[in-house]
Amino acid sequence: MKKETNDINEIIIRYLDGSAELEEKMFLLRWLKESDGNRNDFTATRDLWLSCNVAAGNELEVDIALGKLKDRILQEQGRMKGESHTGRKSLSIVLRWTRVAAVLLLLLGIGYGIGCWKGRSVSDIMVQNQLITAKGSKGRFTLPDGSVVWLNSESKLTYPNRFTGGRRFVSLEGEAYFEVAKDAKKPFVVQAGEVDVEVLGTCFDLDSYSSGEFIEIALLNGSVKISGKAVKEPVCLKPNELFRYRKSDQYSSVEEVKAGLYADWIKDRLVFDNDCLSDILISMEGRYNMEIECPQPFAASTRLSFTIRQESIEEIMEAMSLIVPIKYEIKGSKVYITPRK
Q1: Residue of 46, 76, 247, 322 with fewest CB within 10 Å of its CB?
Q2: How far is the C-alpha of 201 from the C-alpha of 79, rounded, in Å?
Q3: How far apart are CA 183 and CA 26, in angstroms?
Q4: Largest CA distance in the chain
Q5: Global confidence as pTM
Q6: Are 205 and 225 a contacting pair, CB within 8 Å?
Q7: How many whole angstroms separate alpha carbon 173 and alpha carbon 170?
């Protein structure tokens, strides 16, 4: 079926909520390649979508989401007011955002209508919510049971609007740090690729990016049980243990670590005071969502003191190269460090 340009708002929204068909995804890809303007429009729509968290499960959430939409459009109108030389462009942007709001309104209205279908209330319908973080961002969220979750860059957590039955089930793509509310009668289960993590109440970090070679689980306190179709026998972790699963050959291992380092990425500032480089690199990997390779003997014998605030990985690596004798190379999502001779 041929898609018209007028349908692009609907296609973008379906792409963002995961319901787009293959034909629609291909159409969107071609549209994005056509111009920088199209790509800028997509980015604006995506940011609007993320800021509104439109997976609303009841009438109050619908009203809140629509209120956010209205505020964003009014803010844009106010920002553009007075820019007479770009008036035509301003009007175009506001009209486009208004069309996007109409699409979201339609989706929210349909979702709420389904909940009331055949006399059933919204509370009778299980709604799946999605929390999504953009590249270079992170966020702290509270789940319906009171559990707290931090999502790292480019991560997605799917969870119901309420936990029913004997388990609290969520699924993760990317990396998250969990502080799980205790409930001995209802285990909390995180499904991450080929691995399931079951807990009653604890703090742990789970790294399960689809593009990564490993799935890693670092336990800060409490206990977790790791199972799944790719895990031959369930594994129970103790605090300061790291479970690592290699996707290529389904090999898994457990080792003792400083588990807190794996959750350092949730902090606004990282302070290192004569710390071992091998520990620093673990914190930096989470901070920048990158893999950093360095010869272990060198990393274990080198100590550094510095602070990371808002600096980029390039700025930090350049500063490090001025402090210690290293060379570095950044290739995509990997950093390669070698000692200078």
Answers
A1: 322
A2: 46
A3: 45
A4: 76
A5: 0.64
A6: no
A7: 10
Question: Quick one: residue 222, left, alpha or beta (phi over 0 = left, psi -120 to 50 = alpha)?
Answer: left
- According to DSSP, the residues that pair with 148 across neighbouring strands are 142, 179
Burial 276-294 (b: 16+ CB within 10 A, else e): bbbbbbbbbbbbbbeebeb
pLDDT in tens, 266-319: 999 999 999 999 999 999 999 999 999 999 999 999 999 999 999 999 999 999
- Cα separation values, 177 from 131, 219, 283, 293, 317, Å: 14, 10, 13, 23, 26
- The residue count of the chain comes to 341
Q: How far apart are CA 219 and CA 239, in angstroms?
A: 5
Report the 3 state secondary structure along the chain.
Answer: CCCCHHHHHHHHHHHHCCCCCHHHHHHHHHHHHHCHHHHHHHHHHHHHHHHHCCCCCCHHHHHHHHHHHHHHHHHHHHHHCCCHHHHHHHHHHHHHHHHHHHHHHHHHHHHHHHHCHHHCCHHHCCCEEEEECCCCCCEEEECCCCCEEEECCCCEEEEECCCCCCCEEEEEEEEEEEECCCCCCCCEEEEECCEEEEECCCEEEEEECCCCCEEEEEEEECCEEEECCCCCCCEEECCCEEEEEECCCCEEEEEECCHHHHHHHHCCCEEEEEEEHHHHHHHHHHHHCCEEECCHHHHHHCEEEEEECCCCHHHHHHHHHHHCCEEEEEECCEEEEEECC
User: Contact, 183 vs 201, CB < 8 A?
Assistant: yes
Instruction: Answer for the pair 41, 96: CB distance below 8 angstroms, yes or no.
Output: yes
User: Cα–Cα distance between 177 and 149 in angstroms, integer?
Assistant: 6
Return the ∠ at Cα 257 (arms to 228 and 238), rounded to 5°. 50
| Mode of pairing for the β-strands spanning 148-151 and 168-179 | antiparallel
Scan for tokens 């291909």, then name that residue: 26
Sign of CA dihedral 109, 71, 128, 184: negative
Report how far Cα 39 is from the mean position of its chain's Cα atoms. 21
Structure tokens at 261: 């380092």
Q: What is the pLDDT of residues 60-76, one digit of tens each?
A: 444 455 555 555 555 55
Rounded CA separation 96/228 (Å)? 45
